[in-house]
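To fix ideas, we quote verbatim one protein's residues and fold tokens.
>
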Amino acid sequence: MVSASDILQAGILVVDDKDANIQLLEGMLRVAGYTSVESTNDPGAVCEMYRRKRYSLILLDLQMPGMDGFEVMERLKGIEGDGYLPVLVITAQPGHKLRALEAGAKDFLGKPFEMAELRARVHNILEVRLLHQQMKQTVAELEASREVIRLQTLEEQRKREQELALAQETQESLLPRRLPRFEDFRVHAFNSPTRYVGGDFYDFLQLNWGEWVGVLADVSGKGMPAALLSSMVLGALSMEFRSGTEPAEALNRVNQLLCEKSLPSQFVTLFLFLLGPSGTGQFISAGHNPAWVVRAGTGKIEWLVSDHYALGMFDFATYQSREFHLCKGDILVVYSDGLPDAQDERDEMFGEKRLLNIIREEAPLGSHALELRLLNAIEEFTHGTPQTDDITFIVVEKTG
């Protein structure tokens, strides 16, 4: 994972034709703790400086004499092979926002701006950028060794297992190190990846206004390509929600990102939910299997069903949230298809019927009892049989 020191030491370039603006931005960044900040008032020098330093972020003014920010971004595209531009545009013209984003900028900051907003946007972009670079480096290293590994002896194959185990640790680092504690909620989560590096992940994020977000996603494929796509989705979602984006718009933006940056064969099913202290919330299911709500008062199980395309499939897809509510004692169960598709030694599947029966029997005893019963049932059913898909689930109980 990217540490706070990594972010503060990341290279930043400030580009503005006015010295006063440069001094202001440099001062704000240094006060925030950033230690590697450079600047130029010559837009024509940006590309050469970027070739030498490969800055993690460029703060770019759009309106400059001789060469404006749009032309600078166009030239930067010729340097970046994957087309990714680590650019945060700063301008006093709100009308330039859409054009700047279409030109490749990753975010937009209007003048005048507050220091808190600048710090938040800079931090979020750097976090996603460094995480993406970290995963790309891991993938490149593994791909470079693939042909050598294929020809190695049994001892060398053992080393390969160690490398893949390290890749598993990298994927696991995308998951929360510890489950969060939210007021009036109890949260449980489980993930069992297959083939060392799986395509499932979950995450939780406390929002500033008292609500919190949970997400469970299933990325197509396995191995490092799935892990890289997972990191891209997780980083993009984190940046959107830390910026205050509403859930529906956040998924609209992530879908566009995947359509532009991922392979045609890659997609992500996802169940995202947002809850407040009172239990009022909203959810979006993007091509994911149903989630279930068990009502404590009646024992009834309600289905939260998907009505949207998976992310990354169609650039015309849009996403809308639906409301739901958890009362005291109610339990929300979200899972990936690897749970009902888990197989025993006879290739028989665990199945949704068996899963529903367990939920119906154990939910009245609380979320902790339900989690233990699910884990025991999976272990007893599979008897250690290697699985072809990740098994992941989240259980949330409203406790107050």
Summary: Residues 7 and 126 are 6 Å apart (CA to CA). The domain at 4-125 is CATH 3.40.50.2300 (Rossmann fold). The chain has twelve helices and 15 strands.
